[in-house]
Structure formats: structure tokens, C-alpha cells
């Protein structure tokens, strides 16, 4: 009987919460109180705590205002900003569902940690500028009383992008936009390049653009752990499990032009617990899709893209996992401490790693060469055939690796880009039809550096209903339906 | 200037220790209490600690904003009297010293920082700044980066100067010849890598940097990166016995001219 009563209240609470969450007000409602009291009574009752049949401590809560799918850097950043921008302490209950607490396949830990403002799209530049400011003040933003400060290990060494004759005009244009947005980037002629970086061979290079401030690379784990620590201290709950199902209701509506559309609202998220058949339904008002490379699947679970092709209902979230390799090698005569993150005209890139003449690098394959994303195995031939030749041409010192290449490649790994096949840019904000699902995904290789800003944008959208700090409306989902690409040229 | 800051730290740390102690106690006591005396006491304590935490967070934020406040730019002074006076005013206010071209060193007097004679130097560039032990940070650096004739800069033992700050020094690349970063607790090899922009540098002091992971190797790499520059690093400091050197510096800086 008691259970029944709780259910009843829960249903009522949900409505109230759905409303109050939208306005960002207080949500400590009746249902929350009942379950709290219930828990308290249970823990005080003799024997209540240890009965294994009823031990539910590993389960997520039965209700949460916001459920975030994916505990990577983007999911955590959304959680952080939701808590930070809430009007009143403890006003919003946030649950982060992450299926793998070791993050063994998550992109965040497998990235190379670069941050740059050298993008072509003003929105990307703004996101990155905001993020670099966040990272610089990370110990103000993510400070937790009594915990040691974070050591982000930021290398402010800059990015050096190289352009061939063909790409020079575009590069010049991009740099103009970057400067307008406030980024500190300079253009360099081949001669200037040779003077500054004597180890570079400028054959085939017409122009270089070099970031002077706020560019470089940092430790992605530090950002991830720092966010985790902070959001936990802010009262965000974590749950180890996989989101397998959404329970939603539909509403048939008609647009002004007489078209029929089905509006959906997710009411429950089913979280399957690790290594068991058990699952827990979590009632929620809002779902954030921050499942990285797997966010396309999560969108599908919510019914996104399941409709006749060419309609809004039939428009999929075009994000899929794409495997990218990173190789690490040692070269005793390689470039020194001044080495920036170099992106070659060929698309291959490398950067210094630590002090001992170690380097990291890779290259995005062409569309035809895309490896099977089924596993994270590394293809070592790819280094021999695609990565090393252009880099050895650019930096003759690497040539000495030729016969030693097997010895000198120290390690390699693969990770998944959360690749947006439509225009290689992020997807931010709500879905037009599944009205309470919000996206923070699709950043195709620049999601780590933009996470602090994207989290804020999504939180603003959820709490205020519009973007405030940075206008990301070009990155809304509707562009896939309208066919409006917001192309980013600088993806590698 | 240094003394009040130190005592402030002391207060913060004892404060921390105090609450940590009480917190440790609460976790030790809680399980027994919850069964015998009911939950009210625990609830009470938990509420108190929540408040304490908020209070400490507030104090922490205040400390941060104090540093920020000390480092804002004096836009008004800059507009009215030009970059040199603004820079000098900032450095003196922070407790440092400045040297206008062809003039004597001017040090902070501790009482009024802004002596009217400063205004005579409006058109005289600043060639050297000694900001040792100052609370200068990333934002505060704005006030120095506008000094385009600056040849010598000392940032010794500045607690807030970090790698991010070093990444901005390229703006002084045309003039800077001498730079001392000795004893800065937050500078690492990652920031030193940015100094390759400063190709006019003749003398660089990177001794006694606790955050640099391998000082020997770092010094070699910095020397390679700046072939025309004399780099004073770990060995140099050991060889010359830093003790008395440090002392003489210490007595030199706080004494007003
Ligand atoms: C080799 C490589 C290099 C990169 N280099 C850079 C770089 O230099 N700079 C940069 O900014 N970015 C870089 N990136 C991109 C960056 O890593 C990603 O864009 C970013 O980490 C995405 O963060 P995320 O939180 O969305 O994804 P993830 O970190 O992948 O997090 C998603 C999480 O969702 C979880 N999840 C998925 N499905 C479910 C489910 N059904 N239920 C529960 N949990 C689920 C996953 O377990 C995962 O932990 C690189 C990526 C790769 C692969």
C-alpha cells in the first residue's frame, strides 16, 4: 500500500517538476520528500540496511529532473553548468548515467588533448576561446574545498597549421575571422617559418598560421576527473549502467502548413545495470544525449530518424564512431622544446610529448580508407604508409626513423571520433520533435576542447530556453533536415 | 606586502585544519549516534557542516577575487597618463620597483605608492621592472605587456605567475633582454617552452623552479632553444650557494629608496 502511495505521489511530482524545471525554480517537491523519508525509515528499521534482496544502493534514483546519458567530458560539463546556473542550491536533480567507469573506450581519455582557436567557423572559435578561459581558471571553476588543486598540464605551445598554394587563400580568410573573434593568431611566410623553426622543410608550403596564445595541449584526464569531482560535490548523482530504452508519449500535432507531426516526450529512461538483466526506470523531465560516438544510437532509441525519409521525423542524428589512430615515437634528433602542434598540408599532424624527444601524431584517413570501427585495434601499416611519409618530408629529422621505425614507435592507440558525417560540427540544443531530448555531441575531433563552453550552452538552453553566452543556433539539429551545412574546414 | 599575505595563508590553513578535524570526528561518531540517539544530532551536525562548507567556499572565492582585484588594469590612468605611468603605478602598488630609462630605481614606499614626481616621467619609457614577490597574475600582466621598451623583467618568487603567463611574454619579444623567473612555484617546463619567442634574450634565470620535473634536462633544452642566451639554472644556483644571494636580494627589495 505504501508503495502505491509513493507511485501516486511520484506521478504528480513529475508534472510539477517538469514545469518547475523549465522555469529553473525549486523542485524539492512532495515526491522527493516521500522517497527521502522512505529511505530514512528503511535505514533506521532494524536489519533494513543489509538485506541483500532489497539492497538498492547500486541503483539509480527513481526520479531525476535531468538524466545525462554519457559521463564523458561533454556530459559532465553539462552537469556542471546545470548545477552552477541553477537559481537555487539543490534546485535541480541531475543524474549522469555512464556505462563504463573505467572510460576504456570513451573518446575523452583517448584524445590527444589539443586546444586551438584556428577554426573556420566563428562559433567554433568562440567556443574554444571560452573554453581556454575556463581551462586557465580551472582551479577557480572546479575548486573543491579540501581537495588539492588540479594540474591541467597545459602546454601553451600553439598550433602551426600549414597550407599549400591551393589552401593559402582560405587560410588567410580563416585567420581574418579568427582575429576578428579575438584569437591571437599570426600568418607566417615560408621564410619566417624556416627562421623560427629551423627543423621544418617548407617545400610545398605557401603559408602557415601560428597560434600565439591559448593554444596547445593539456591532460584530458585532469579535466574529466576535475569535472567529476566537482559535480559530485555539487550533488550530481552518478550511476553505473547503460541506457537501453526510453519510454515516451506521443502527441499528434499539425503545423501551420497543415503537415502532421508527432511530438514526443520522454518520461522514463531505462538504465540497465552492469552484468545483470536488472534495469531501473528513472522518471525524468529532460534527457541530455552526450553519449559521444554512440549518441546516434541513443537518438535512435528515442525514435529519432524513424520516419519516412525526407521528413523531420525521418532525419537521423548523423553521428557515428570513426576510428582514429594515434602513434607515439621517439626521435633523438627531432625538433626541440619550441615545437608546436603541427598540422601539415597533407592532413597529418604531430606534437611534442614531454621532454625526451618523444612525439605524438596521426592522420585522418580518407572516406574510402575509413577503418572498421568495430574494435579499437591499431593498424601499424597506417603509420608506415600514411602518417610517417608526409611528416618525414616536412621534418627531415624524422627521416632517420626510416630503418628504425619499428623500434622507435613506442606505442599507439585508437579512439573514436564522435563523427558528424553531415558537416563535422557539433550538435547542440533540443530536438525539434522529441522535445525533451537535448544534444551535446558530434564534435568530430574537437569535442574535448569545446566541452566547457558547450556544457554551458546546453545548460542555458535547458534552463532559460535560449542561448545566452554564445549563440549556437547554427548548430541546432534542424540543420540536418533543412540541409544547411555549417562546414568546418579545419578538421584533422 | 609579503607579511600580511603570509599570515592570511596561515589563517586559511589553520581554519582548514580545524574543520577537517571536526569533520573527521563526525564520520567517526555518526554510525553509533544514528542508532542510539536517533538522527537529530547527526542531522544537526550535517546541516552545520554544510554551512561550514558554504562558508569556506565563500572565503575561498573571496581570496580569489582579491587576487583578481589586485590585478586589474588601470584603464583610466593608462588613457590619461599613458602606458608607462600606468605600468609603473601598477608595479609600485603591487610592491615592486620600476626603472625609467636613464633614471634611478623607484621602489614602493609602502605608504603612498603614487608619488607625484612619477608624472614627470610620462614620456620616459620604462626599461626595467622588478616585480619580485608580487601577487601579479595573468590579468595583471596586461600592465607590463604594454611597456614596449622593457629590457629587464624580474618575476622572482611570484606565487601567481604560471605557464599561462609565460605564454604571453612573446609580446615583449622585441625588447626583452633579461628575465628572471627564479623561485616561481607554478612555472613548469611547459611554460618555459614558450620563451622561444624571446630571441633577444641575453640572460634568463630559471633556477629553483619546483614545478619543473627534470631541471637539468629542461635547462639543456632551453639553452638549445635560445642559443644566444645565458641560462641560469639548477647547477648555477647550486654552484654559487643561493643562500646569501637570496638574502641580499630580500633585504634589497622591501627597503624603499
Ligand atoms: C584520437 C583522438 C584524438 C582527439 N583529439 C582531440 C583534440 O586534440 N582536441 C579535442 O578537442 N578533441 C579531440 N578529440 C575528440 C574528443 O575526444 C571528443 O570529441 C570528446 O572527448 C567527446 O566527448 P564526449 O563526452 O562526447 O564523449 P566520450 O568521452 O566518448 O563520452 C561518451 C560516454 O558515453 C558513454 N555511453 C555511450 N552510450 C551509453 C549508454 N547507452 N549508456 C550509458 N553510457 C553510454 C560512453 O561509455 C562514454 O563514456 C579526439 C578524439 C580522438 C578519438
UniProtKB/TrEMBL annotation, chain A:
- The record's principal subcellular location, in a coarse class, is mitochondrion
InterPro entries of this UniProt entry?
A: FAD-dep_OxRdtase (IPR006076), FAD/NAD-bd_sf (IPR036188)
> Which residue intervals define the domain FAD dependent oxidoreductase in the entry?
65-461
Q: For this chain's UniProt record, which GO biological process terms are given?
A: mitochondrial respiratory chain complex I assembly
Subcellular localization: Mitochondrion inner membrane
The UniProt keyword set, sorted, is: Electron transport, FAD, Flavoprotein, Membrane, Mitochondrion, Mitochondrion inner membrane, Oxidoreductase, Respiratory chain, Transmembrane, Transmembrane helix, Transport
Needs which cofactor?
Answer: FAD
The reply to whether Metal-binding figures as a keyword in the UniProt entry is no
Q: How does it sit in the membrane?
A: Single-pass membrane protein
| Presence of the UniProt keyword Zinc in the record | no
Provide a GO CC annotation, any one.
Answer: mitochondrial inner membrane
Provide the GO MF annotations for this entry.
oxidoreductase activity
Tell me, what does this protein do in biology?
Answer: Required for the assembly of the mitochondrial membrane respiratory chain NADH dehydrogenase (Complex I). Involved in mid-late stages of complex I assembly.
Q: How does it assemble?
A: Associates with components of the mitochondrial respiratory chain complex I.
Official protein name in the record = FAD-dependent oxidoreductase domain-containing protein 1
- Taxonomic path: Eukaryota, Metazoa, Chordata, Craniata, Vertebrata
From TrEMBL, chain B:
Matching Gene3D superfamilies, A to Z?
Ribonuclease Inhibitor
Domain of life per record: Eukaryota
State the family it belongs to: Belongs to the ATP synthase subunit s family.
Briefly state the protein's biological role. Answer: Required for the assembly of the mitochondrial NADH:ubiquinone oxidoreductase complex (complex I). Involved in the assembly of the distal region of complex I.
Assembly notes: Interacts with incompletely assembled mitochondrial NADH:ubiquinone oxidoreductase complex (complex I).
Q: What is this protein called?
A: Distal membrane-arm assembly complex protein 2
Source organism of this protein record: Molossus molossus
Q: What is the lineage of its organism?
A: Eukaryota, Metazoa, Chordata, Craniata, Vertebrata
Amino acid at each position: 500500500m505504501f508503495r502505491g502511495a509513493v507511485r501516486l505521489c511520484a506521478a504528480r511530482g513529475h508534472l510539477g517538476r517538469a514545469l518547475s524545471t523549465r522555469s529553473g525554480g525549486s523542485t524539492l517537491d512532495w515526491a522527493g520528500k516521500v522517497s527521502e523519508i522512505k529511505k530514512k525509515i528503511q535505514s533506521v528499521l532494524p536489519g533494513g540496511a543489509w538485506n541483500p534482496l532489497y539492497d538498492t544502493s547500486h541503483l539509480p534514483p527513481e526520479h531525476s529532473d535531468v538524466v545525462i546519458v554519457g559521463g564523458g567530458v561533454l556530459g559532465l560539463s553539462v552537469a556542471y553548468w546545470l548545477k552552477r546556473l541553477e537559481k537555487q542550491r539543490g534546485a535541480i536533480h541531475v543524474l549522469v548515467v555512464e556505462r563504463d567507469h573505467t572510460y576504456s573506450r570513451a573518446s575523452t581519455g583517448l584524445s590527444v588533448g589539443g586546444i586551438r582557436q584556428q577554426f573556420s567557423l566563428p562559433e567554433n572559435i568562440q567556443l574554444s576561446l571560452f573554453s581556454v578561459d575556463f581551462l586557465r581558471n580551472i582551479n577557480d571553476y572546479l575548486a573543491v574545498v579540501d581537495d588539492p588543486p588540479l594540474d591541467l598540464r597545459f602546454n601553451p605551445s600553439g598550433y602551426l597549421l600549414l597550407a599549400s598554394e591551393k589552401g593559402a587563400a582560405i587560410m588567410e580568410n580563416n585567420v581574418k575571422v579568427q582575429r576578428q573573434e579575438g584569437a591571437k593568431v599570426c600568418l607566417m611566410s615560408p621564410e619566417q617559418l624556416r627562421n623560427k623553426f629551423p627543423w621544418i622543410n617548407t617545400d610545398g608550403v605557401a603559408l602557415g598560421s601560428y597560434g600565439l596564445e591559448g593554444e596547445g595541449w593539456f591532460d584530458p584526464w585532469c579535466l574529466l576527473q576535475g569535472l567529476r569531482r566537482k559535480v559530485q560535490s555539487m550533488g550530481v548523482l552518478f550511476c553505473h549502467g547503460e541506457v537501453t530504452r526510453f519510454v515516451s508519449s506521443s502527441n499528434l500535432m499539425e503545423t501551420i502548413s497543415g503537415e502532421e507531426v508527432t511530438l514526443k516526450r520522454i518520461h522514463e529512461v531505462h538504465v540497465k545495470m552492469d552484468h545483470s538483466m536488472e534495469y531501473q526506470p528513472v522518471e525524468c523531465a529532460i534527457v541530455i544525449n552526450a553519449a559521444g560516438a554512440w549518441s546516434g544510437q541513443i537518438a535512435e532509441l528515442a525514435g529519432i530518424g524513424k520516419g519516412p525519409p525526407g521528413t523531420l521525423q525521418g532525419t537521423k542524428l548523423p553521428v557515428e564512431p570513426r576510428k582514429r589512430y594515434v602513434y607515439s615515437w621517439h626521435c633523438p634528433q627531432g625538433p626541440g622544446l619550441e615545437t608546436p602542434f603541427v598540422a601539415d598540408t597533407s592532413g597529418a599532424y604531430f606534437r611534442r610529448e614531454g621532454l625526451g624527444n618523444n612525439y605524438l601524431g596521426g592522420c585522418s584517413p580518407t572516406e574510402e580508407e575509413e577503418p572498421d570501427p568495430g574494435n579499437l585495434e591499431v593498424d601499424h601499416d597506417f603509420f608506415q604508409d600514411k602518417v610517417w611519409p608526409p611528416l618525414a618530408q616536412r621534418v627531415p629529422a624524422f627521416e632517420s626513423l626510416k630503418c628504425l621505425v619499428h623500434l622507435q614507435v613506442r606505442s599507439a592507440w585508437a579512439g573514436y571520433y564522435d563523427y558528424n558525417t553531415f558537416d563535422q560540427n557539433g550538435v547542440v540544443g533540443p530536438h525539434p520533435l522529441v522535445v525533451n531530448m537535448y544534444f551535446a555531441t558530434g564534435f568530430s575531433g574537437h569535442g574535448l576542447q569545446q566541452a566547457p563552453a558547450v556544457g554551458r550552452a546546453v545548460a542555458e538552453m535547458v534552463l532559460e530556453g535560449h542561448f545566452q553566452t554564445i549563440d549556437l543556433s547554427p548548430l541546432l539539429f534542424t540543420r540536418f533536415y533543412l540541409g544547411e551545412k555549417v562546414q568546418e574546414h579545419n578538421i584533422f | 606586502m609579503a607579511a600580511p599575505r603570509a599570515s592570511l595563508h596561515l589563517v586559511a590553513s589553520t581554519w582548514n585544519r580545524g574543520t577537517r578535524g571536526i569533520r573527521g570526528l563526525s564520520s567517526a561518531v555518526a554510525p553509533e549516534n544514528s542508532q542510539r540517539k536517533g538522527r537529530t544530532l547527526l542531522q544537526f551536525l550535517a546541516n552545520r557542516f554544510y554551512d561550514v562548507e558554504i562558508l569556506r567556499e565563500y572565503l575561498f572565492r573571496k581570496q580569489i577575487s582579491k587576487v583578481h582585484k589586485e590585478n586589474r588594469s588601470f584603464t583610466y590612468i593608462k588613457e590619461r597618463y599613458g602606458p608607462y605611468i600606468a605600468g609603473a603605478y601598477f608595479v609600485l602598488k603591487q610592491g615592486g620597483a620600476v626603472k625609467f630609462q636613464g633614471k634611478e630605481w623607484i621602489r614602493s614606499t609602502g605608504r603612498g605608492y603614487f608619488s607625484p614626481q612619477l608624472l614627470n616621467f610620462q614620456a620616459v619609457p620604462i626599461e626595467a621592472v622588478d616585480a619580485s614577490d608580487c601577487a601579479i597574475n595573468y590579468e595583471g600582466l596586461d600592465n607590463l605587456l604594454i611597456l614596449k621598451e622593457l629590457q629587464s623583467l624580474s618575476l622572482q618568487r611570484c606565487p601567481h605567475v604560471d605557464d599561462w603567463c609565460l605564454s604571453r611574454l612573446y609580446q615583449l619579444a622585441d625588447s626583452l633582454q633579461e628575465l628572471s623567473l627564479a623561485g616561481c612555484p607554478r612555472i613548469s617546463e611547459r611554460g618555459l617552452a614558450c620563451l622561444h619567442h624571446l630571441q633577444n634574450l641575453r640572460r634568463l634565470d630559471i633556477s629553483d623552479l619546483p614545478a619543473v620535473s627534470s631541471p637539468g634536462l629542461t635547462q639543456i633544452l632551453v639553452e638549445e632553444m635560445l642559443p644566444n642566451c645565458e641560462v641560469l639554472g639548477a647547477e648555477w644556483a647550486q654552484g654559487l650557494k643561493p643562500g646569501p644571494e637570496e638574502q641580499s636580494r630580500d633585504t634589497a627589495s622591501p627597503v624603499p629608496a
